[in-house]
Amino acid sequence: MNSFCERFLGSVRRECLDHILIISEQHLLETLTAYVRHLNAGRPHQGIGQLVPAGSSTAAIGNGEVIALPVLGGLHHDYRRAA
Fold first, then answer.
1. What pLDDT digit, counting tens, does each position of 63-77 carry?
2. Less Cβ crowding at N or C end of the chain, within 10 Å?
């Protein structure tokens, strides 16, 4: 189990905390909450067949415009089809 924790903490550090100046404990909690939400609901994972861990993503198929939704102030993005 320690390897899973080390992998997660390394990802948090490299992809999130190395790029944001944390100013308080509350700011840290908000930042980590947003990152974990993005990790589990918005970002595909190669180990589970390009699916997100929080359930099946229902990607709209078509030629509609793709929009980028900023996460963590633009550090990461979620991509969705415009309605």
1. 778 888 787 877 877
2. N
Instruction: Report how far residue 20's alpha carbon sits from residue 74's, in angstroms, rounded to the nearest whole number.
Output: 11
Q: List the Cα angle 81/54/8 in 5-degree steps.
A: 110
Cα separation of 42 and 30, whole Å? Answer: 17
Q: What is the CA radius of gyration of the chain?
A: 15
Q: Decide: 77 and 69 in contact? Cβ < 8 Å.
A: yes
Contact criterion met (CB below 8 Å) for 81 and 59:
yes
40-63 pLDDT tens trace: 777 666 556 666 666 655 555 667
